[in-house]
Amino acid sequence: MPVRHRGLLLTVLLAFVAGSMVPAAAEERLPDRRAVGTSARTTSSSTQRDNLLDLLQQLEALQAEVRQLRNTTEVQGHELEQLKNRQRSLYDDLDKRLRETERHASTPAAAATGGAGIASVPPTSSAADGPRTVTAAQQQEYDAAFGLMKQGLYEKAIKAFRSFLVKYPDSGLADNAQYWIAEGNYVLRNYKLALEEFTKVLSYNKSVKTPDAMLKIGYVHYELGAYDKARQALTEVQQRYPGTPVARLAGTRLEKMKKEGH
User: In this structure, which topology does domain 119-260 adopt according to CATH?
Assistant: First the structure.
């Protein structure tokens, strides 16, 4: 309720209370023969005042509650925005690190071609006959899809990455695109579909996304309540990638499952 409206309402109610007190004061000056009637009206006025005061107290309590709820909503909105920013930063950092890894791996091939504007990367698909490349157009379209991902527009990002794979199935970014399709479905809690999509990542030979995909497969099984499969997948991550961040995350989830009795 706006402040001016609240003040006007309080003024009207207080004026009504004050006005209700006038008859009672006037009745005290009337002859004794009207004492009984005066007493009844005084009692009625007193009851009226009590009721109005009670309403005022309820109104103030309600206004205080509304203010508290508004403050809580603002705090939650701020915290949510912070989480979204943090998520965007994490996605961006992960993608940058993966690109850096791919760049280091492709240095010999790029040097051999004289660096003609196309970044060569090692074969990441078992079906590839030779090194796959990333053109400027592919990079631009991939970045646009990834931008949607960072904004939290997961459904649009998934659609954009699928379109990328249809157009550039042999791109050096194909395995990355496939991973983000799976990740988008995981965030949207489409766990069964996410499991299918993460499994597809494993079909890309030597993909830098493989460890993360294996970890997420374990996570998905956990979310689906398939604890034996989750344990198997997470244990495999620990065995294949000891001492790595994904191995530590796998261990954390396994410890959580143990505490939960799974």
Answer: 1.25.40
Asked if residue 23 lies in contact with residue 45, where contact means CB atoms within 8 angstroms, the answer is yes
Q: Identify the pLDDT of residue 97.
A: 56
Residue owning tokens 């194909």: 174
Residue 112: pLDDT band with limits 50, 70, 90: very low
Model pTM? 0.56
Alpha-helical regions (H) of 188-226: 191-201, 210-223
End-to-end CA distance of the chain: 52
Q: 144 — phi, psi (to 5°)?
A: -65, -40
Q: What dihedral angle (degrees, nearest 10) is formed by the CA atoms of 155, 94, 244, 110?
A: 120
What is residue 34's DSSP assignment? G
The residue extents of the domains of the chain are 3-84, 119-260
DSSP string, 98-150: HHHHHHHHHHHHHHHTT--S-EEE---STT-SS-EEE-HHHHHHHHHHHHHHH
Work out the number of other CB atoms within 10 angstroms of the CB of residue 38: 18
Residue 182: CB partners within 8 Å, gap ≥ 6? 194, 197, 198, 200, 201, 213, 216
